[in-house]
Specification:
The chain has 292 residues and is an alpha+beta fold. It is built from 11 helices and 13 strands. The strands form 3 sheets. A 6-stranded antiparallel sheet has the order 8-9-11-10-12-13, with helices on both faces. Strands 4, 5, 6 and 7 form a 4-stranded antiparallel sheet that branches. A hairpin with a 7-residue loop joins strand 2 (38-46) and strand 3. Helix 4 (97-103) crosses helix 7 (161-175).
Length: 292
């Protein structure tokens, strides 16, 4: 089957795998995600409700092509739907300003690739990136779920963008504390490949404990400054993806070489939806400033 035929089969049969729900309608919808990446999902709306989870079908089509039966996939989709319903039942989607103060977080995205979506939501330009705001729906062993905060949301809550930024930045660091680890801790084989690496010419990975949207940690107060002080030098900051930044002493490498490396990694390794930037940023220890 083609992807379109696959979606039609799911739409036609998924109701039979959810017999305990009074389903009013099921429909296929396309959703634009980070960097303009379009995903296709099925939305199953129950009678008397106007909010429903979106179950994305791209992954399920991939495993269908790998040989998984349609029956197995329909069962997996129904199980995901039930988990999503459970999350919804434990979450307050009609959040007030008090809920916002506990659950608003920030996320760094590429500015140009999200330009259209940014028209409808509060954001702050940060070099070639944009700081966006999201409402944290859940964070557990299964992952992190959040919803983009729109211009209409902050108007309803009567909160300014500047106030939202301060609230969300503090929440993000509290909920997603930063981690900085040498790359050979993450990839043990690096020690064998480059046995002469010392602390000053290692690559260091800046992320958060969950590993989700960890590039945002570059915005945390004094994180870069404190690390540069510990190394005793200025730093280059390379965006690996939306999930992490790479830190390296600027004395050990040329910026042009790093820019070439970042572009190659983005082209051949980083998925389109996780892409952050081709730029390399510089932190000057003397001035305590980041520049591009």
């Amino acid at each position: 089957m083609s992807f379109e035929e696959f979606c039609c089969e799911i739409l036609e049969n998924v109701v039979n795998y959810l017999p305990d729900y009074n389903i009013e309608t099921a429909k296929i919808e396309k959703v634009t995600k980070n960097n303009g990446v379009e995903c296709t999902g099925i939305v199953i709306v129950l009678e008397g409700e106007n909010v429903a989870p979106n179950i994305y079908l791209d992954y399920y089509f991939m495993i269908y092509k790998q040989g998984r039966s349609l029956d197995d996939i329909l069962r997996m989709i129904s199980e995901e739907y039930e988990r999503a319903r459970d999350t919804m039942s434990r979450s307050n989607f009609n959040v007030d300003i008090d809920g916002l103060r506990d659950n608003a977080v920030i996320k760094l995205v590429n500015y140009e690739r999200n330009k259209e979506k940014l028209k409808d939501c509060p954001h702050i330009k940060y070099f070639d990136l944009a700081i966006t705001f999201r409402f944290l729906v859940k964070m557990d062993e299964c992952g992190v779920a959040s919803a983009l905060i729109s211009n209409s949301d902050i108007k309803k809550w009567n909160v300014s963008k500047e106030e939202l930024y301060q609230i969300a930045k503090e929440n993000t660091r509290r909920l997603f504390p930063e981690t900085i680890r040498a790359i050979d801790e993450i990839l043990p084989d690096m020690k064998e490949i480059c046995p002469d690496l010392d602390d000053r010419n290692k690559l260091y990975v800046l992320s958060n404990e969950s590993g989700v949207n960890g590039a945002t940690c570059v915005l945390y107060d004094d994180v870069i400054k404190n690390f540069a002080n510990s190394m005793g030098c200025s730093l280059f900051i390379m965006p690996s993806s939306i999930h992490e930044m790479i830190l390296i002493c600027c004395e050990e490498v040329e910026k042009e070489r790093l820019k070439k490396l970042v572009k190659e990694v983005n082209k051949f390794i980083v998925s389109e939806i996780d892409y952050l930037s081709d730029s390399v940023y510089f932190y000057d220890l003397e001035t305590d400033k980041i520049t591009i």
